[in-house]
């Protein structure tokens, strides 16, 4: 009789969990769908407009879901707790945005390194008797990637009927670099007021070269502080891995199981993020 009661309670308990899961899924379906659509729109802007990659946003969404699931399972296997699974799943959810930011930053650095050479190509083309569009075609055909892709995209918009000034403004906003906005603004002003375009381009190249020299000087002076921020940000994770694999695995697991340990971990994560962002803010100088 007692066994039958336990079976009945187990069935009722399972039914309640099933119904609660269904209700939560039904309530959260629409907000989750809107969140996924908003995330895919962001992926579309970054992948296709900024990075000029022919990658479907849905593919990146699926990849993000796989990363979240894999890291969540890994966290549960390591810590034997839901808290550890949720912690690593949260890291997995942030991973795609960080990866896109790194790709965007790397592309922007390459573009800024190539802009002076592109301006010199424009100036040479203008002095050889070509107009501005024809000089841009030299970069679109013979320039190095990724600046070749950007000018090819700009000229493609121009060929499809977009005014050149508007295409240059869109290119400056798409690239997100002050150097390119300066270049396109100067070209826009020259098209309206006239003047010696070759001399104007030479002055722009000299100005951008000086700005980049100052930026590299600042990066050199702040390199130690930025490296310190990265090491301090990674140190809690490194120490925890050392404790888990070499010193006290059970003690590390207890941090993810006990309520006090969970609070300590939450405080460590928050303070670590705040300290990392604080140091990065101090080391970030804008000229």
Describe this structure in words.
The protein has 287 residues and is mainly alpha-helical. It folds into three domains: 1-36; 107-220, Receptor-associated Protein; 222-287. It has eleven helices and no strands. It has helices spanning 2-50, 57-79, 82-127, 132-142, 147-159, 164-175, 178-193, 197-221, 223-247, 249-257, 259-283. The chain is elongated and about 95 Å long.
Tell me, briefly, the overall form: elongated
CATH topology of the largest domain: Receptor-associated Protein
Radius of gyration from the CA trace? 27 Å
Q: Mean pLDDT, as a whole number?
A: 77
Cα end-to-end separation: 80 Å
For this entry, what is the oligomeric state of its chains? single chain
Layout: helices, strands, pairs:
Blueprint: H1 2-50, H2 57-79, H3 82-127, H4 132-142, H5 147-159, H6 164-175, H7 178-193, H8 197-221, H9 223-247, H10 249-257, H11 259-283
Helix pairs in contact: 1-2, 2-3, 3-4, 3-8, 4-5, 5-6, 6-7, 7-8, 9-10, 9-11, 10-11
Short summary:
By secondary structure, this protein is mainly alpha-helical.
List keywords for this structure.
287 residues; 0% strand; mainly alpha; 11 helices; Receptor-associated Protein
């Amino acid at each position: 009789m007692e066994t039958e009661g336990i079976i009945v309670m187990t069935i009722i308990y399972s039914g309640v969990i099933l119904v609660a899961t269904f209700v939560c899924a039904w309530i959260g379906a629409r907000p989750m769908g809107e969140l996924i659509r908003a995330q895919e729109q962001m992926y579309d802007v970054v992948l296709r407009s900024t990075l000029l990659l022919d990658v479907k946003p849905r593919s990146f969404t699926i990849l993000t879901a796989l990363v979240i699931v894999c890291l969540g399972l890994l966290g549960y296997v390591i810590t034997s707790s839901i808290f550890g699974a949720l912690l690593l799943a949260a890291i997995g959810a942030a991973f795609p945005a960080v990866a896109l930011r790194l790709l965007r930053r790397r592309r922007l650095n390459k573009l800024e390194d190539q802009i002076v050479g592109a301006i010199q190509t424009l100036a040479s083309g203008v002095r050889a008797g070509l107009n501005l569009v024809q000089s841009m075609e030299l970069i679109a055909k013979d320039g190095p990637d990724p600046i070749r892709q950007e000018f090819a995209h700009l000229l493609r918009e121009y060929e499809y009927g977009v005014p050149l000034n508007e295409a240059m403004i869109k290119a400056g906003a798409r690239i997100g670099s002050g150097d390119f906005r300066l270049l396109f603004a100067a070209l826009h002003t020259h098209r309206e007021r006239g003047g010696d375009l070759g001399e104007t381009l030479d002055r722009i190249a000299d100005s951008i070269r000086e700005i980049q020299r100052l930026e590299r000087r600042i990066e050199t002076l702040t390199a130690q502080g930025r490296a310190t921020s990265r090491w301090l940000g990674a140190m809690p994770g490194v120490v925890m891995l050392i404790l888990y694999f070499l010193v006290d695995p059970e003690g590390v697991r207890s941090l993810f199981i006990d309520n006090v340990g969970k609070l300590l971990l939450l405080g460590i994560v928050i303070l670590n993020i705040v300290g990392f962002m604080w140091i990065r803010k101090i080391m970030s100088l804008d000229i």
